[in-house]
Fold each of these.
Amino acid sequence: MIKVTEIKKSFGGDEVLKGISTTFEKGKTNLVIGRSGSGKTVMLKCMVGLFKPNFGEILFKDKAISKMDSEAHRVLREETGMLFQGGALFDSMNIEENVMFPLRMFSNKEKPEMLLRVNEVLERVDLKNINNKFPSEISGGMKKRVSIARAIVNNPKYLFCDEPNSGLDPKTATLIDQLIQEITRENNITTVVVTHDMNSVMEIGEKIVFLKDGKLVWQGSNLEIFKTDNKDVTDFVYSSDLFKKIRNIQLNEH
Amino acid sequence: MKELVLKEIDDLIIKSLGIVAFISFFVGGVISIQTALNLENPLIPKSLIGFATRQSIILEFAPTFMSIIMAGKVGSFITSSIGSMRVTEQIDALEVMGINSLNYLVFPKLIAMFFYPFIIAIAMFLGIFGGFLAGVYGGFTTATDFTIGLQDSFYPFHLAYAFIKTFLFAIILATVPSWQGYYMRGGALEVGKASTNSFVWTSIIIILTNYIVTQLLLS
Ligand SMILES: Nc1ncnc2c1ncn2[C@@H]1O[C@H](COP(=O)(O)OP(=O)(O)O)[C@@H](O)[C@H]1O
Ligand SMILES: [Mg+2]
């Protein structure tokens, strides 16, 4: 479980996160949603330690990051997997080396043993026989899968995903969402997914945190999000034509 | 770490040899011809051609001007490779895995650049060799005169001076472009701009360092 209390983050004079508190539960896919620029990525980067909040605490299993010693930090790094928006695969390494990279950093296993694990996770994300290809030689959807493989190769307890299905066709996007949810359940880990995709919200939104201008304005599940009358949330949810049409059909039926 | 350093040696040093050899050979030839063409006074010995070629190449052309060319080649390569890692979040990915990305990316480049003096030594040799061929086979001087000039008032300290500054330029060539790439923000367009900036800044710092080192060591 990850607990966030009153976190604030500014860049220069701009306050991007204005005091956010919430919890992300274990075994669930937790979503952070909101429009572009609402601070989702900054919040995620605060949680993985890329940014230091100016105020507030982030607690992993009730231990605050700011109070951890260096050994606890190292362990947390090892227990954290992250899927970046563009994949962030290392261009200079092939797929196998990319996925093996965290193993090489965190374990002193022999290469054959690491290779077994690499092939195991690549198979888990339905990729085979691409070990020797380079990131520039595979499709966007495959890159996302490889990044997922790299993020989970070390059996993380916490998985963070920034817009995992941006830039993908709807079908591939759904497959990636489902993959993330399955992995979360199989391994009983805490997953936080940043998205602005309503399909993801419907598919995997077990807990949803809605951000607007750096503030948390609503939280709940995907069953509740269609019932709320919070104007910011309904504006967001029904900004897509499809959902507007669905709502109109529902209204006409009643 | 060893693999990383070897890869950087290949990218930064080995892959620069071709252009360095090409430029120094022909510029050496031109220096020799230019000196010959400006020697109208019959009282000045023909050996001056060899002497002038040696001095210009060892003191300035090979260390300083080759380094400016390397600021364009090696410098923009470093900035664009680190910069594109920044904008595609590969640097963030390293940090999330608990890796000190600045060390990881810059340190191997710095080590690789310790081999940079070899490049400059090759530039010196080929520059003088090019000067010799152009001078002798262009009919401006004889092999004997040129060789006498090459050996005329040779101060080993000049060579030391040349390699001291080469060493400083190597450090500048590894660090300034890395810094330009590492701290950039934006997208692909900004990577291009950062590479251009990197060339400008690296050149300026090399030229100023050259001035200061020359003032300190030679005057
Ligand atoms: N490293 C940074 N330095 C300065 N401003 C930043 C930085 N990262 C993000 N921001 C700003 O924070 C705001 C929120 O950005 P972000 O979290 O990326 O939005 P999104 O919700 O689309 O992911 C934006 O206005 C952005 O310009
Ligand atoms: Mg974002």
Amino acid sequence: MTAPARQLDENRGDIMQNPYRPYPVRIDEIITETEDKNLKTFKFVFIDPEDEKRFAYLPGQFAELSVAGKGEIPIGIASSPTEKGFVKFTVNKVGLVSSHLHAMKAGDVMGIRGPLGHPYPWEALKGKNVVIIGGGFAFTTLRSSIIYMLEHRDQFGQINVIYGARTPGMLLYVDELKAWEARDDIGMHITVDGAKDPDWKYNVGFVPTITEQKAPPADENTYAIICGPPIMIKFTQPVLDKLGYGHDRIIMSLENRMKCGIGMCGRCNIGKDFVCKDGPVFTLAQLNGMPKEY
Amino acid sequence: MKFVKIDEKQWAEGIGKLKSGYRVFGPVKEGKDHEFRELTGDASPDMAFSNTRLSPKSVVYPQSEVMFEYTTDESRPDHHILKEPRRDDTPRAVIGIRPCDALSFLLVRRNFDSPEYKDPYWLRNYEATTFVGYGCNDPCATCFCTSAGSAPHDTQGLDALVVDRDGGYAAKAITEKGEALMKAAGWTDAMDEAEAEALFADRAAAAEKKITRQVATDKLAEKPSMDLYDAPFWEDVAFSCINCGTCTYLCPTCWCFDIQDECRGCEGVRTRNWDSCMAPLFTAHGSGHNPRGEKVQRVRQRFMHKLKYYVDKYGEGIQCVGCGRCVRSCPVNIDIRKVCDMMNAYDPEAANDCACPTT
Ligand SMILES: Cc1cc2nc3c(=O)[nH]c(=O)nc-3n(C[C@H](O)[C@H](O)[C@H](O)COP(=O)(O)OP(=O)(O)OC[C@H]3O[C@@H](n4cnc5c(N)ncnc54)[C@H](O)[C@@H]3O)c2cc1C
Ligand code: SF4
Ligand code: SF4
Ligand code: FES
């Protein structure tokens, strides 16, 4: 008897591959990033080195960090695919899983599942000027992007970065920021809302203000990637409008509550699109035609 | 052997025989309603039902299902590594499923069997199941399957269809899976083809005639999504909803789920559980921000998903088979048929702010 029409071959590879199964990883290093100790960067090493190849990603994608006994959380990938041998994530301490992660130590075993979602549109960005605008701890996939672009420096035009935090002690990846600041092939515009430190030698002011002062003028060849808290986005968008950035040249990354990360559990949708599977990267032009459910 | 006749005795014996090769599920009476349950021991399906209160989706998609097992005991070499539990591969048979409910699995499959990802739990259970439908003679007042892509004797989602016949049943094999089941049950008493065709056609026509309520869905696809989203009637539709989630739990085409970890001592499981877009926590961020924090946003989500987003995403009609369960069980009489008609007829040019009747 031949297999009935509705029957699938039991051994079909795609069924046997369980998209919910995380790759086992070991925590290699934990770095406390900020003075309030609420942000830590986790460096993971895959227990099976083959899994690192399977986890081939591009900047802008995310993964589910999976802790047996606690659950999973979607976190943007902070490392760049050009960095080999590990993956990095920076996690804000919020609730159940993130707090547990903050209490874990180097050597502990957990899992990561991904990469998930779409990266920033690297094909479209080739040969273009890129201005990165980031605020607070949403700088993670932007770090990934900067490192990626600097590794492929000849593939991009001008690169500018505007990155702000409340205080100098709240900036992520400080050593790297300083190293980028010293380079002449990337325009760094670091800013803080306020600094008590008299030696603070960078900008003071909110991200929208600094954007207005430092962002390159808009043209067909210039894209802005913007990630930050809603309030920053709300006030930066009019600035970009004023500078003449087309809405299809403004790229954003959304965060909706997630579980499955693969478009099945139904919770992260905005209209017919899932932030996990169809995003998290959208252009402002796309978002303009979607419900404001984010 | 496409058509067979089954007398009462053969029917009862057949159900018994099936249990040696299948896990058999069927309608049983619980309290004043029927539910689909696994028929163990000598339990038999109670075919004197109109439809079950809950849909039979749990046969394929249990309300709670273990995805992984693990130990957190660090003295064990595999601690904190997730493993799939051994699964029960026994074929399943659902006896007496209504055609609309069987069709719902085809709708839901579009979600769990996507080009990019396959949900192994749902798919394995689905593939293991043989659906033996029971054609309706007396649709409920709330049924509207005929305008929701189905019909009282629709065979789209079925492997075999059973209808009433004097002194027992007549059955039709639709797939080879259905044929295999009929053989396993010993239902092999061939029926004259012409007689059988006539019987099935008569039964189907008689039942269809009894369905009086239709919904209009023809214009849903062409309406701009944001026009419907911004339509003035949502406040009114949502006004009396108490967000109990009943509509989503008993719906055969609702599939949303949550994933949770649970430990007892060092032994833990990751489970997935039915969830509901009607619950505020469904979308609440850890920060407290909630993109659908208001009841009206959640009610709109449910209807927009079923009647617009799904329509746009797959181009295969609405995400509803017209079983009428949500209409029947909603404590405040919110009626998807009225909402559907309202959406289908909505014209933002003509709309003013007057409240459209919803109930
Ligand atoms: C694409 C994406 C990228 C993200 N990147 C980062 C990042 O780089 N760094 C970072 O610190 N945070 C990031 N977040 C937010 C992070 O996922 C939440 O802060 C985290 O899920 C909170 O989980 P919890 O268990 O600590 O909190 P709880 O409130 O206990 O949350 C319970 C569960 O709800 C879900 N959940 C709650 N809040 C969110 C949320 N905002 N987004 C998604 N799911 C949520 C998770 O499944 C979580 O396990 C990102 C979110 C998304 C969607
Ligand atoms: S069953 Fe009725 S009251 Fe309950 S959530 Fe659904 S629409 Fe609202
Ligand atoms: S939406 Fe209501 S009528 Fe439609 S399939 Fe679900 S429960 Fe049945
Ligand atoms: S997280 Fe499950 S659908 Fe997006």
Amino acid sequence: MNDRIVFEDVSKFYGEILGVNRVNLSILPGVSSLVGPNGSGKTTLMNLMTGLVRPTRGRIHVLGHHPDEPEKLFRILGYSTQFDSFPKGLTGFQFVYSYLRLGGSDSQTADQLAWRAIERMNLTDDAGRNIAGYSKGMRQRVRLAQALCHNPRVLVLDEPLNGLDPLARTEMIALFRAAAADGCYVIISSHILHEVDAISDQVILLSNGYVVAEGPIHSVRNEIREHPAQILIRCDRPRDLASKMMESEHIIEARIHNDERGLLIKTQDADRFYLMLNRIALNGIEIESVAPADDDVNSVYEYLIGNDEVVR
Amino acid sequence: MTELWWAQIKSVIRLEMKKTFFARRGLWIYILALLPLLLFIAHAAIASRERERSSHIASQSEKKLTYQDLLAVRSGMTSQEVIALLGKPPIRFRWNQRTPNLAISAATGTGGSGTPVNLSSAYNLNGIYTDTTTFTTGGLDGEGFAYSSNLLTANRILNGVQFNFGPANQLDAVSSTGQPIGLPSGQFTALQLLATAAHGPVLSQTITVTYTDSSTSTFTQSFSDWCSCSTNPGQQPGESLAVVMPYRDLSDGTQDGQPFNLYGYTFVLNSAKTVQSLTLPNNQDVVVLAATLTKQSLGTQVSLSGPGSFVNVPHERYHYSDGVNDLTLDLSDGRVEGIEIRTAVYSLGEDSIVFAGVFQFFYLRLAIFFGCLGIFMNLFRGEILDKSLHFYFLAPIRREVLMVGKFLAGLLATCVIFVTSELLQIVVFTWQFSPNTRDLYLYHNHGLAQAAAYLGITALACLGYGAFFLAAGMLFRNPILPAAAILVWEAVNPFLPALLKKFSVIYYLKSLCPVDIPSPRGTPPLLALLVSNPDPVSAPVAILGIVIVALLVLYVSSFQVRRMEINYTSE
Ligand SMILES: Nc1ncnc2c1ncn2[C@@H]1O[C@H](COP(=O)(O)OP(=O)(O)OP(=O)(O)O)[C@@H](O)[C@H]1O
Ligand SMILES: [Mg+2]
């Protein structure tokens, strides 16, 4: 009980609107991923876990702590939210520093911890600048710095890879793995299953407020692998990228977008595709964005979630 | 534990400070706080200028004057007497005023020529009264004013023409309603009227004389108002001053001490025809007192409105001062006519009431009220609008501690802003007095105690209102409604039953105010209740009351803050 994160029959309604319904979860140490399309309830689950919203029904315990007691909960938990807004007028350093001070740290400790977190997030050069002037990725990183600055055992990270460049992604993923290896609880959310399944010990698949699948990643991974995924890449030299891609046997098809700035890939093995993409990105092709081609209900969910047998 | 809380509260305050003090949307709070200060600065500036002027006048005086000296001047004194009393006036204005010449009036008595028309059948007004008679008829103008029969007498002779007036204290004047009046039969060269207008001049009226053969002569005439104070009295074409009287009678038996006139009008008739009737204009404000038909050959009527009918009366104005109080004298023709004494307006007693009024009605009920609204309501709400509240909710800090921290930050901000402004107001307010008065006020007239009380009340008001608005900002999404509700609640406080009364801020604050504002006589009872405090509580009770009310509100809010969720979407 005190060594896991427990949801007992938790439901959350925003007035009439369903957030999540009848969620029963038990999360163990390691990397756990909440995966689901937009509006499926990932953020709601995380907010419930951290007390930012309160369940309409059910009970939640985080390593024995109740989310209604932030003074205890946040000693062991760090949450990087999806909210892209910050208190006005703070620099990146002040943001992390004053968060630590709010927790009661003395100025010296707070200073030390804040700098350490900022260094880990590669923000040292920009720490003195006002957050209002940060890029999207920098804002994401300063939020992550805030979440892990006090070395919590539980990390709740809402779409942590969002907005990060490939290099930063790789670093972040390494960081999650390291934390998991240390016995931490790392809970991340994503709407791209492939993005997280390689690093997850457990995935929780959400759809329309329901948990539709939950378990160790390899039990679902194989099923997914059989089905080709479509991925849209925006980059500056799609033709070069396409020719590199086609060398690999798991790529079924590569189509150049009409505007010569994009590439649509159909692959048998999305895992390997993402690994390969990271390598290629280091070779000088500038990649603007990577996204599943079927935006809303991507092919994976059609296969996995659109199937009624799995839901019940 | 408390040590940790205290550290956390301090860090909340540190974070909030910048927001509460320097927020651009908080600019109006400073304006509200500084408005009374500007008022008192202006007040002090005016007061000091007045004082300078008074002492300047006093320094120019021949004699050193006392207040008693200033009071000694009586109406009717000659300028020599005034100068003997007060010395040569340090400031003196002279000018001439054109006034109707009292000396030019028509002669009294009988023996004039012409055929007076008997108007008695047409009398419908009591236009003439003997002096000191009280009357309820409305007099000549329906408002209780009439000619004095002592001045007018029963008959007048104008250019040799006889005019007879009606009997005093009875119906004796004709208000024109377009009625025909019979004329004595005969052939005449002219019809002459003594008449006037009331309620201001009446222009372009038609008068008709009908002859026996049914033909008519029609005249157009304008009539001046009877008061010499009206514009150009007696100067309408064809109009002359007939009788100028130094006063008129009032219905309460007194007299109205400025000149009133009766005017003469001449209408040339067709002397070949026999007159039958006279039709007056249809305008009640034209009042006829006498009419006479004459056979004088044309050209012998002389208008009285020559150069001699007006005279230039010398007027003078003297200013004296004893250094504090000012005396202004108006002299007409060398005699004192008007006396105006202005005691030092900016006197302590009155001023502290003005100060109390500004404090109670503007500062307490509006400035601090809305200032607290702006700052305390935004403690949580502002951050919901900015979508940054989750920053606090993610920290390992009790929500109650966070709330207290925010409350103290708001309290600090409002106290600094409003107490500072109040302090400056008090400084400016006391500064305007002369050093002696200031010392007297501060050290002997409870001035220091009052100042301390005002500062204390300001701080307590911030505490009380702050608690209410903090709660309102957490409980409601739209701040307008709760703010209006609190405003109404505080305003109707005097009318509430005793128990409910105690659950408000203004109830205690009013009890603490050191200077009572006397409600002037005739204030509607509802308003008077707002001003007065029928059942004040003692100071310790009032202070304790506010603190308890504030703590109670905060206690209730602490439950709310525990249950608060982050929900930025439905704004
Ligand atoms: N504050 C709110 N008020 C009303 N409805 C809400 C609120 N927050 C979330 N919802 C609803 O709850 C459901 C789940 O939303 P949630 O934000 O948890 O989805 P998500 O999986 O995080 O989506 P995304 O991938 O876009 O971040 C959605 O239908 C959403 O409309
Ligand atoms: Mg989300």
Amino acid sequence: MDFNDTEQEATFRQQVKSWIGDNAPTYLREELELSGFGSTRTGSYDPLAEAKKWQKKKADAGWACIQWPKEYGGRGATPIESVIWNQEEGVYNKLSGTFIIGQGMCAPTMMSYASEAQLKRYMPTLASGQEVWCQLFSEPQAGSDLAGLRTKAEKEGDDWVINGQKIWTSGAQHSDYGILITRTDPEVPKHRGLTMFFLDMKSDGVDVRPIKQANGDSGFNEVYFENVRIPDAQRLGEVGEGWRVSLTTLMNERMAIGGGIATGFPEIQALVEELHVATGTAIDNPAVKSKLADWYAKSAGLRNTASRAISALSKGEIPGPENSIGKLVAGGMMQDIAKFSLDLQGLGGAIVDPEIARGSARIQAMLMRSPAVRIEGGTDQILRNILSERVLGLPDDMRADKGIGFNKIPSGS
Amino acid sequence: MDFDFSSEEKMVRDQVDRYLMNNCENGVFRSVLEGEGAYSEDVWRGLVEMGVPGTAISAEYGGVGAGYSTLCLVAEQLGAYLAPTPFSSSIYLAAEAIQLFGSEDQKQTWLPKLAAGEVIGTLAVTESTQESTEDNIQVSCSDGKLSGRKLIVPHAGIADLCVVVARDINAGVNLYLVDLGDAIGASPGSVSVTPIDTVDNTMNSCSVQFANTPCELLGAPGEGWHQLKVVYDRAAVLIAFEQIGGARKALDMAVDYAKGRFAFGRPIGSFQALKHMMADMYVALKLAESNCYYAAWALSTDSAELPLAAATARVSATQAYQLCARDNIQVHGGMGFTWEFDCHLYYRRSNYLTLMLGGLSTWEDKLIHALPSGKAA
Ligand SMILES: Cc1cc2nc3c(=O)[nH]c(=O)nc-3n(C[C@H](O)[C@H](O)[C@H](O)COP(=O)(O)OP(=O)(O)OC[C@H]3O[C@@H](n4cnc5c(N)ncnc54)[C@H](O)[C@@H]3O)c2cc1C
């Protein structure tokens, strides 16, 4: 076991450091440090334009999506090199939020199922941030129970015609492409009647409507499809195999590899080191110490678990469902940290004005964003189901829809 | 970077695992718990024959010199099988203190015997029902003689050698070595050892009364409390591995039971309330395990990060074992609260290990103390 860089890794790290030192948008550094929890702060600059600019610069020098093959816009780097890159990119990584879904989830799905010509066309522009992708999975009637989705795809000549609605689609408002899961056969049991596509979001009949979120932002959208035509060549996987294809996407979603998942620990540590409470500096208070120690142990645990997963990956092992723990631990922890941090400040903690609130109101942003972490990409409950069934081997839930044709399943509406 | 144990290290782990699987089923723990002997002499002898106590003791002092990462994996197995042996007291504590702070002469005298299991050692710290501090140590030493009482010393009933934390009238707190056999031989009243019941009676806890007992200084005068902390940071990693070993078995036991027991016409393991409880046990265990890996690296490389890594591993391993042992009982229902089922064995051991080097709050405190300021980051 060795947690230090090998000589080769140290050389690589030096190379990354010097490139970032010469090229990073240092003028954004201060604002980016205050970013996170659902928002990217870039001061007077436009966040999307700055994100695309940094991504393009990285891509031109071979530092975008470094684990991807070179012909798709990557660098063919190892998992460990990718970790080193992430560590060194540091705060500038926050500019990549817009591309996470496309690069982290759509791309692996494409790489498993798209044609070579398609990959050569779409991957480099995804890597360089010139084109943004979204994931069109959830529907009003199908979230946790994704396989209950209703958006219809019907074959007409060489095209498929899509009608229906998706919801909670993050980033759809500035996406160029998306991967879309549809129902192609309503007669068979629900997991068997699904088919996956990718589509041009500028196609006729696609209507994107932003949704205002509980925290006031508008990151996700409703997307309506009215007679949208998709060429059969843009089908991913066989007809009726959409569920299996979607598992590739979801697996990648839950990997959260790199240990970069936000927990709120640095924020509360900074707070309690300077905040005064009745007993003196907050960090010297035994109740504060106890909670802080617990949260440190959890965030270190996540970091070290991610390191182990990367080690396994670099030895050719395939990361399994145990990686669901990252988001499960981080989401609840972030919410608890936010509440405790505000509790220490009394009513003044309620202030969200970044000019007045401590730490530029990052903790308040965390409070308002954290409920989403416990829902997006699989709720806390679904992740516990996965851990108990797929890791511990406990029996499946009793299900009311097993083996029944999709159109016969009770739906409550 | 490589965040996994080597194949040689895993080989030793598998050997110990196999040995314990065949020779240390829970019945062995039970018989010690029920008073048949102070520890399992058979299991201890078996481990000694395999050279296990000497795993991290260097070859020049009669050990194997296989290093601390290997010892960590050994500890995980000892914890998993609840091995009722004096391994922790003798190796993680007494031998460790002598390796770190002993004179050449003391090392030559004791380490080969500890490695060979000819001598069992222990460490005596606690004097009252308050958490020990540098200020509340009252057992004292003058003119090379110890006096006073240690309230609870694990494995003291079977120990030949005791490292004692005591106050020198002039120098402050020191560590001392007491050859218990010699002392009692020379003057039967100079040491009296009285067994004391605890939540885990397989730990052979005893009160030890010293009355003008001859002792030798171990390490530097006035440095005893600091030296104790150094020993504890190292032992904490090893105890944390015992804790995750035990936690894993308690979780496995819960999962097995939940698959086979039916209620309301279905396996209780299909109820989400229980599935989610076991998922949480798994999460706690996984976090602790990963922190233990990191701490094993810090221990085996004498990293400057050891105090933080050890406290982190210790805090999360304590949480994990306590959670898994507690909720394993819950999954078993009434059966879980019987003497006959093994659930209480893990519950007992987990709660004893929690307190062994100072409780959870002590380690939380140490963790925060060792944590670099966030401003530096
Ligand atoms: C900020 C945000 C961004 C998102 N971005 C995207 C995106 O880009 N693309 C996309 O496709 N989707 C996206 N989603 C949708 C997300 O994946 C779903 O919201 C999520 O899967 C939950 O589905 P639901 O909202 O329908 O809730 P429901 O499934 O109706 O869940 C309601 C409650 O029931 C519980 N529940 C449901 N089933 C079970 C069960 N079997 N056992 C126990 N409890 C259960 C849930 O845990 C939850 O507490 C996003 C969501 C959020 C909040």
